[in-house]
Each structure stands twice: as structure tokens, then as C-alpha cells.
Write a structure and sequence with these properties.
It is built from eleven helices and eight strands.
Length: 255
């Protein structure tokens, strides 16, 4: 049985103090909501500087914390990078991998994404695995091929057992931070397709048990329609996760 996941990707926003403040406001806002018994899981993803402090701030709450990135090596001469083991030592057990900003701006190739997935898995971490097509690719009707290729190249080498650690986030690049959202039917169509790809690679059970989030300009005004779609299990939210009241409004829609 799948639950609903509402994940906030804070990206490179908020300094240490602001991050702690936002975490505090979110937890205060949804105090007594009994997320677990309502089948809703909330995750926030601060920048690395704030990771440990936000974990500490949220330690007695039902809200989980994820990292926005890891490097695939365990340790060594990789200036500026952080490993799965290091974020785990800060009390974080989930990581976002393959975000389109990582792919487009920092050159994370499918091979690199796959290596990061393997590193996270061998460190026992859960993964929010992001995929999405560009506007150009959609216009040339390549969106399904692109999504399938991203899944095959970064994820589908995992075993059925390892797939239990995976949450997929479908984030069409043209909808990220643009204010433009995929329509409910466009999103549902792609989520259903992703489920079919998983079924063909594994089995019906794995396909039905895998959470697939939508991401790309999710806000209170479009969350209801998206969450009502049968193959959409929640959202990965950027801009609208930076204000506690707005983020919590989306959580309330999911509850
Ligand atoms: P957005 O970002 O909600 O600001 O579009 C989503 C994401 O990149 O995860």
C-alpha cells in the first residue's frame, strides 16, 4: 500500500538560521496532524550547511530530512564533495539523485547518476530518483523515450529488493520553477507509463509499491488535482516549500 509523500526541496536557498527557522515553523504548523497514521510522509531537503541542524530541530517530529546530493565515492581527494556515509553521519537517510538541475548545470550524466544510486544503496539510504524531459523533447514527442532511457540508465539495474528504497520523482524540466505545471492528465499519463516500465522490468507488485511523485511548480492551487490522480503519490516541491504556510497548505491537501 502506498502512502502520500510531500517533499520540500529547498535547493540553494536559506542560510543556517533561516533553514532552522523554516523547519521550526513547518513542524509547529503541522503539530498534532499525525502524519504517519494519516499515511502522509513529509520530507524536507535543506542545503548541506543546514542539514545537521535541521535534523536536530526535527528530531522529535514525524518530519524526515533528506540530502539534495551526494558524490558517489566514499571519501578521498574530491574537493567540495560529500559522500553518502557523511550525510548519514548527520542523521540523514534519504538523498535526492538525478535532479534536472544537477544534470543540466553540474553535468551529472546518467552514468554518474547511476554511480550515486549505487553508493546510496550500498550505504542503506533511500533515494528520491528524479527524471524528466525538456520542453524540446516533449515538443518532438520524445518524452516517453527520454523517461524510459533515464530509468534504464540510472535505476533499473537495481534488484527488486533494492527498489524498495526508491521513490521516483517525475519532474518535467519545463515545469520546474517556471510556474507552468503539467496538467493532471499529462502528469497522470507519464506516471502510469513509469509504472508500466517498472512492471515490465520487475513485476506487478514492485510497480504497484513504488512511490512516484510529481514535481514542477506544485502549489496549493494545483496540488489537489494532481494528488487525485491514481498514479501520483505526492510531490517534490521547490519554490512552494520555502514558505511554511504554503508548504503546510499542500500537506493539508494531502491529509
Ligand atoms: P519547483 O521545483 O516546485 O520550484 O518547480 C521543483 C523541483 O525542482 O524539485
Amino acid at each position: 500500500m502506498r502512502h502520500t509523500i510531500i517533499a520540500g526541496n529547498w535547493k540553494m536557498n536559506l542560510d543556517l538560521e533561516e533553514s532552522i527557522e523554516l523547519a521550526k515553523s513547518i513542524s509547529k504548523n503541522i503539530e498534532n496532524k499525525e502524519l504517519n497514521s494519516n499515511n502522509v510522509k513529509v520530507i524536507v531537503s535543506p542545503n548541506l550547511i543546514a542539514l545537521s541542524s535541521v535534523v536536530n530541530e526535527l528530531k522529535n517530529t514525524e518530519i524526515q530530512v533528506s540530502s539534495q546530493n551526494i558524490y558517489h565515492k566514499e571519501s578521498g581527494a574530491y574537493t567540495g564533495e560529500v559522500s553518502a556515509k557523511m550525510v548519514k553521519s548527520a542523521g540523514v537517510n534519504t538523498v535526492i539523485i538525478g535532479h534536472s538541475e544537477r544534470r543540466a548545470i553540474f553535468g551529472d550524466s546518467d552514468q554518474e547518476v547511476k554511480s550515486k544510486v549505487n553508493s546510496a544503496i550500498s550505504n542503506g539510504m533511500d533515494i528520491i530518483f528524479c527524471i524528466g524531459e525538456t520542453l524540446e523533447q516533449r515538443k518532438s514527442k520524445k518524452e516517453f523515450d527520454i523517461i524510459k532511457a533515464q530509468l534504464e540508465q540510472g535505476l533499473l539495474h537495481l534488484s527488486t529488493e533494492q527498489m524498495k528504497s526508491i521513490v521516483i520523482a517525475y519532474e518535467p524540466v519545463w515545469a520546474i520553477g517556471t510556474g507552468e505545471t503539467a496538467s493532471d492528465s499529462q502528469a497522470q499519463e507519464m506516471h502510469k507509463y513509469i509504472r508500466t516500465v517498472i512492471k515490465d522490468s520487475y513485476n506487478e507488485k514492485t510497480s504497484e509499491n513504488t512511490h512516484i511523485l510529481y514535481g514542477g511548480s506544485v502549489k496549493p492551487s494545483n496540488a489537489k488535482g494532481l494528488f487525485a490522480c491514481s498514479d501520483i503519490d505526492g510531490a517534490l516541491i521547490g519554490g512552494a516549500s520555502l514558505k511554511a504556510d504554503v508548504f503546510c497548505e499542500i500537506i493539508n491537501i494531502a491529509l
